[in-house]
Design goal:
The structure is a single chain. The chain is of the alpha+beta class. It contains two helices and eleven strands, in the order ββαββαβββββββ. The chain has helices spanning 18-28, 60-74; strands at 3-6, 9-12, 34-37, 51-55, 78-88, 105-111, 124-128, 131-135, 142-146, 151-153, 164-173. The strands form two sheets. Strands 1-2-9-6-11-5-4-3 form an eight-stranded antiparallel sheet, with helices on one face. The chain has a three-stranded antiparallel sheet with strand order 8-7-10, with no helix packed on it. A hairpin with a 2-residue loop joins strand 1 and strand 2 (9-12). The longest helix has 15 residues, at 60-74.
């Protein structure tokens, strides 16, 4: 597993086993997706384009089993605040936002698409002290970053006809 560090953003390639990844895909194919999620809550003045979301906080596989793997591989202990999947289709994207206003808050973001082409866009964009950084979507890759770093999901291109999926664990350092 390659671990690359970009400032405070740490990338983990091939983070989960193929077996665990296939189980994630199976769970994400359940009819639990809801439309209307946004980088900001509904009614917030900065909220722009809604996108898809699946709540995962009631699933032991995400809240315990995968959280234990995250803690083991990152060598950190966390309290789980929330876990959910985000889904973007052509015409949707996120807005720059922060996940935490507390230095103990972390986001663990897992790219849950089985394959991806660069021409489909869909990068995660970070604004690290005014330095814009792009993380391409690489299947089965994960990012760990302080939740105080502004970030957003780039929209996917018209050439992509599926759902760009990430799973976000919102974590608090113990």
């Amino acid at each position: 597993m390659l671990v690359a560090k970009m400032n405070d953003i740490v990338r983990y390639d091939n983070f989960l086993s193929r077996k665990d990844f296939m189980l994630i895909l199976e769970k994400l194919n359940q009819p639990k997706w809801e439309y209307g999620h946004g980088s900001y809550p509904s009614g917030h003045p900065e909220r722009k384009i809604p996108f898809w979301m699946m709540h995962l906080g009631d699933d032991f596989f995400f809240t315990e089993y995968l959280l234990n793997i995250i803690q083991e591989k990152t060598q950190q202990e966390y309290e789980l605040y929330d876990v959910y999947a985000n889904g973007h289709t052509f015409g949707t994207m996120g807005d720059f936002h922060v996940d935490w206003h507390d230095s103990r808050g972390r986001t663990f973001l897992y790219y849950a698409n089985d394959n991806w082409k660069p021409e489909w866009c869909g990068k995660t964009i970070f604004n690290v002290n005014g330095d814009i950084q792009y993380q391409p979507l690489i299947p089965r890759t994960a990012l760990l970053f302080p939740g105080e770093i502004p970030h957003m999901a780039e929209g996917v291109s018209r050439a992509f006809d599926g759902l760009r999926v990430t799973i976000a664990w919102k974590l608090i350092l113990k």
